[in-house]
Amino acid sequence: MTQRTTPIEKQFDKKGPKVVEALKRRHFDAYYCPTGEEALKKVLSLIPKEDVVAWGGSATLAQLGIIDKVRQTNPVIDRDAAASREESLELMRRSLLCDTYLMSSNAISEDGQLYNIDGNGNRVAALVFGPKSVIVVAGMNKVTKTIEDAEARARYIAAPINVQRFENDNPCNLTGTCSDCLKPTSICASMLRTRISRPAGKIKVVLVGEELGF
Question: Which domains occur in the chain, in start order?
Fold first, then answer.
């Protein structure tokens, strides 16, 4: 493992392998990569060259350059190439039958559970069923002590930040904080706790010892 020197790097490098072991006990395939460069290599090594690949919206994947690399190496279902909202939704539906699906997670508890919030439901749907393999890439900043903390992080930290990417009048877009709204445009429509990978190994988690995403 790469030797790193800052206090937060040292903390990540000590905690990360322990979270990986917790994930493995829950039947996830799991890996800890200290740096984004190592994580990129690991993710690409987990995708067979013949696999059709799709992905959910993720700042983490973009930050690591994973999507750009996959476009060069694999056939893809590219939702970002959609010319209309209707085409984008159709590509999201097709993505549920891809071979490998890429996403991040809003939060991961230290005991190895994933917690995700979704507006359209395409990410959580793919995580539950459809793609043959799901690769979850997450920075160590998304690791929380408990699953309750993971839900709180997803709802009150990740969601209000993520909604800033969209043009709407959701309360958190205006105030920066969650008000538990019932707006039709809420990105908190579906909330999913994933406590084990079923079947075993279908979900692969790559933890990165950096602060990535929201």
Answer: 7-208 (3.40.50.10420)
